[in-house]
């Protein structure tokens, strides 16, 4: 689970992905898409292709901004954390093969 607070930019979602027990070198040869979905309705709230970077050790980092999350309606109210589903897809550029990783984003309110 990833926990973010409204209007914060940190922490980034850092995901270590192994495929069949192997860590993939994501530093080159891949593009990334992150989709945030409302858990109750299945509606896509945010599709993000920028500020996502891959590393040689199977790590993909997705950096969010408070403004982009707020504009997409990804928020919480005092005392009521809200959970969203997040999907991170890596596309290998050599053959357009996709792999998707899923997690939960918990938004918490902050003054």
Which key terms come to mind for this protein?
111 residues, mainly beta, five-stranded mixed beta sheet
Q: How would you sum up this structure, described in words?
A:
- This protein has 111 residues and is mainly beta.
- The strands form 3 sheets. Strands 1-10-9-5-6 form a 5-stranded mixed β-sheet. It has a 3-stranded antiparallel β-sheet with strand order 2-8-7, with no helix packed on it. Strands 3-4 form a two-stranded antiparallel ribbon.
- A hairpin with a 5-residue loop joins strand 5 and strand 6 (44-48).
- The protein has one domain (2-108): Immunoglobulin-like (Sandwich), CATH 2.60.40.
- The protein is elongated, with a radius of gyration of 14 Å.
- It has 1 helix and 10 strands; from the N terminus they run ββββββββαββ.
The helicity comes to under 10%
Number-wise, the strands total 10
- Low-confidence spans: none
Mean of the pLDDT scores?
A: 94
Helix-strand category: mainly beta
| Beta-strand residue percentage | over 45%
Please count the helical segments: 1
């Amino acid at each position: 689970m990833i926990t973010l607070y409204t209007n914060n930019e940190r922490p980034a979602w850092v995901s270590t992905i192994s495929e069949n027990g192997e860590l993939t070198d994501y530093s080159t040869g891949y593009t990334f898409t992150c989709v945030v979905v409302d858990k109750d309705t299945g509606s896509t709230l945010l599709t993000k292709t920028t500020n996502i970077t891959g590393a040689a050790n199977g790590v993909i980092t997705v950096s969010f901004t408070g403004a982009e999350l707020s504009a997409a309606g990804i928020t919480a109210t005092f005392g009521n954390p809200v959970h969203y589903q997040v999907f991170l897809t890596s596309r290998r550029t050599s053959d357009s093969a996709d792999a998707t990783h899923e997690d939960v984003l918990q938004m918490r309110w902050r003054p």
